[in-house]
Amino acid sequence: MKKVLVLLMGTLLLTGIAVAQDRPSAEEARKVIDYYYNGQGQGVVLMDYLLCQEISTEGPDKNDCKSDLNPGQLTVGQEAYLWMNYIVPVQDKAELIILFSRKGKVRKSTSVTLSGATRFRTWKKVPTNKPGQYTVSIIQELDDRDLDLGSFQYNVAESMQ
User: Fold this and answer.
1) How far apart are CA 40 and CA 158, in angstroms?
2) Can you tell me the distance from the alpha carbon of 95 to that of 37, in angstroms, rounded to the nearest whole number?
3) Which long-range contacts (CB under 8 A, 24 or more apart) does 56-60 make?
4) What is the C-alpha separation between 49 and 151, in angstroms, rounded?
5) 43-69: per-residue pLDDT in tens?
6) What is the CA radius of gyration of the chain?
7) Model pLDDT, residue 21
């Protein structure tokens, strides 16, 4: 029994050490900080995005996705949000356009304005009013060009009752 307990404790300690190794290298950290302070006019960086059922509005997880959704398992009428996390160079203001397309046509568009932050989190409600495969495109309008930040798909199925 003691051997099992010692083995279990060792495994838990190794797991904790493995998680701690996610620390960025000095070069990675320097690159991000340099971009934040000197990347004005080059565009924002979309660090992460999720489809979420709920967003935390208070507490230590404020503005984070509280419960994410599988993009292949939405149903008609289900409330869902596109949660996004950006790095925006200091003193920059970014204008983003988010397009929701189905059957090759834009069905909804919305905009987001971001300002300088190392962790700018925002979200928008996604259309689920009709079944089908949707494509989301996130675009930043720069002075001289549009910057495609990312795209992904989600599926809305008829509700099963």
Assistant:
1) 45
2) 19
3) none
4) 10
5) 999 999 999 999 999 999 999 999 989
6) 20
7) 56
Collapsing DSSP states into helix, strand and coil, what is residue 95? Answer: strand
The answer to whether 144 and 73 are in contact (CB under 8 A) is no
| Single-letter residue type at 145 | R
Of 2.70.50.60, 2.40.50.1070, 3.40.50.300, 1.10.8.280, the CATH number of 43-157 is: 2.70.50.60
Which residue matches tokens 């008609």?
76
Q: Where are the domains of the chain?
A: 43-157
What CA–CA distance (Å, rounded) separates 88 from 113? 11
Q: How far apart are CA 110 and CA 123, in angstroms?
A: 11
Torsion of the alpha carbons at 96, 102, 104 and 109, rounded to the nearest 10? -20
What is the per-residue pLDDT across 105-130, written as a single tens digit (0 to 9) for each? Answer: 999 999 999 999 999 999 999 999 99
The values of phi and psi at residue 150, to 5°, are 165, 165
Q: Is the pLDDT of residue 5 over 60?
A: no
First to last CA, the chain: 50
